[in-house]
Structures are given as structure tokens and as C-alpha cells.
Amino acid sequence: MPNKDGISHCMSGFLQGKHQGKSQLNKSPAIPATTNLTKEVIYTLKQAWRSARKGDKKKATKLFVYAIRMAPRHPDVLNNYGEFLEHEDVIQAEYYYTAALSHYPYHQLALSNRKRTLPLVQQIDRDRLARIAAKRSKFYALPLTDPALIRMKRESYYQHVYHTVAIEGNTMNLQMTRAVIENRIAIGGKSVMEHNEIIGMDEALSYINTTLINKAGLLDVQDILQIHRRVYGFSDPFEAGNYRNSQVYIADHVPPPPGQVAAKMTEFDNWLKSSEARQLHPIELAALAHYKLVHIHPFVDGNGRTARLFMNCILMRAGFPPIIIRVHDRFHYYQYLSQANDGDVRPFMRFIADTTEFTLDEYLNYTSVPAIIELNNARRKKNDDVNTDVTISKESTPKGDDKK
């Protein structure tokens, strides 16, 4: 924990190659001199702890964040911020302890802090999945003929298309998206590419709903190729459903070169069919499959749309409603993917879990009648692990029914 200056004890000497007397820290290798902190970073951390002791958490947070910007990979900075966060957010604290250890595995304070907090975080994650499973059972118990449920599914279809293309930069609004899907009309001032992205999503969703949801056996890479063929087929029929033959660059991530894509996708296919994957919770499997696919980035374009569709396909086959990653969550979505690239995929998995829970809450709040749910639970309690009708379809109700 922080010393009298506020900084975790190893800060004042351990990172600068000095001895700490008989401290346990000296039993681990010294961090190379090239990773020493500057005086400005040390001063910033001291001021951050002083602000924290005075109760000014807002200022302390700004100072810690500033210190991380100056030394984003330094284990002491990451560990100090974790200690500051732990009292109110143990998940974030454990994340920073893990990040510190990823850059220096021998950091004794980070090791001790993570050992203490990891069991707490694991229990929180288990509780979250158990809570979501209970809500899934309630969702499955909803009568399939419930008019509110039918309308909700239909609206979700348009919402799903709108948000998933908007994340990629499509400027069509929800009303325009609906018009393109329902009537295939051209929207003035919008590019042909934007129209084709929406039509491609419509085709891919229809394919998933009519084919993949009820497919016998496991999903595989061939299913991904079929999804991409529809997602991208109206934009570039020659590239659709085919692996890229050029290098692509995604922000700070450089996907494998084109010559390695086929082999990477074969590895991914083997993982999808492995006992390891089958033992995962469906939400964990869906999130990991999404991440692995965008990490490989096998296509020249349309990777994100394809990954989100494939993720939803896994969720729907497990009895969950399809989730929508909304455009206003784009920053966090990409941030968690970036953190996964840095070695910790758990924040992204929690993001998908939280989005799944939010989606379930939307359905239950919009449609649920407690007495009906209780009755249907009693009737169908033996079958609540599989939902045979969780597809989203624009044909769920006649056009115009939602105007009634």
C-alpha cells in the first residue's frame, strides 16, 4: 500500500535500482534502468495520493490518469492506480494489477494485490453469468404469441441493422435504414455503398435466421464465410466470402499478413470445435469468438459486421436474444477490443455479458407479465436451456402493425 509519500513502497527505490533493506521486493529481479520513472511521474503520483487522502477523488483520478499517459506500461504506475481504485471498483483495480504484471511479472506488490482481488473478481463474474442465466429462463418463458414480444423482435431487427452499420460509419438514421430494408428505396444524399451495407446486413440476418440458428452440429468457419458473402456481397461480390490478399491495419493492431490468414482461420475453426470452446459459457464463447475473428481480420472489409453477426448466432443458438452493440457504445466497444489485444480479454467479455443482460432486461420490461411468466416457467421448466425461436425477423408482424 502507499507509503508516507502516498506512493506504493517500491516506487521510491525498487524501480530506480536502489536497495530496500530487507524488503521482500529485493528477492525479485530489478526492473531494467530503462523503465525508471521520471521525476514528473513520481511527483504526479505523490500529488494524486495527497488528493486522495484529502477526499478529492476527482482530482486524484485526473492525476493518476495523467501519470498513466506519461508512463502507460510502467508497472508501478499501473499498480498505484489499481490500489487507488480498489476500494470502489475491485474489477478495475484487478485489471490494473494484471496489466502491471503483464509488463513486469515479478512486481511483488502487484502480485500480492492481484492474489487478493482475483478471487473477488472471479466471484463477481460468476454471479453476473448466473444472474443472466436466470433472466434468460424468464425470457424463454415468454409466450411466443405475445404481441408485445413480436413487436419487440421486429423492432430489434431494424435496430440491429442500424447500429451495426452505424458503428462502421454509415450515416443512415434508423428511419432511413427501415425504409431501405422494407422498400429497397434509394435515400437522397446517401452513397450507394451505404445502401449496400444495409441490404447486405438484411440478407445476412435472413440467412442466419433461416439457416444457422437451427443448423445441426457446431458452427464453423464455412458459416462465417457464408455470413460475410451476404454482408459484403452487395458492396464487392468479388471479395465477399473470400479471405483478403492484402495487408490491413486497424488502429494500433496489425492483423496477420494475408499469407497467414487461411492457416489462422483453420486454427480458429479447430478452436470452435474443441472441447475447450464447448466447455465455455455461451456468452464467453460468443465474446471470444468475436474477438478472435476480428483479431485475425480475415476479410478486406466487413470484419466487424461479420463478427457481431457470428457472435449473435452463437448467443441465439444458446437461447439468448440477439444483442445490439449500439453506436453510442462504440468507444467502449473498441476500447475493450484494444485491451484484449494487450492481453486481457475479460473486459470485452464483461462488456458482452452486460450488453446481453441489458437486452434481456429490455425484452422482459417491455413484454413480461409476472403471472404469465410464472405459468410458462412451470410448463417449460425442463426445456429452459434451449430456445427454439429467438430469431429476429422483420416478418414477425405485418407491416404497419406497430402503428396500432
Automatic annotation (TrEMBL):
- Fido domain: residues covered: 219-354
What's the protein's topology in the membrane? Single-pass membrane protein
According to UniProt, where does the site described as Important for autoinhibition of adenylyltransferase activity lie?
168
Q: Which positions in this protein are listed as binding ATP?
A: 301-308, 333-334, 341
Q: Which InterPro entries match?
A: Fido (IPR003812), Fido-like_dom_sf (IPR036597), Fido_containing (IPR040198), TPR-like_helical_dom_sf (IPR011990)
Glycosylation site list = 209
**Sequence segments annotated as region (Disordered):** 384-404
Q: Which residues form the active site?
A: 297
- The molecule here is called protein adenylyltransferase
| Species per Swiss-Prot/TrEMBL record | Trichoplax adhaerens (Trichoplax reptans)
> Upper lineage ranks?
Eukaryota, Metazoa, Placozoa, Uniplacotomia, Trichoplacea
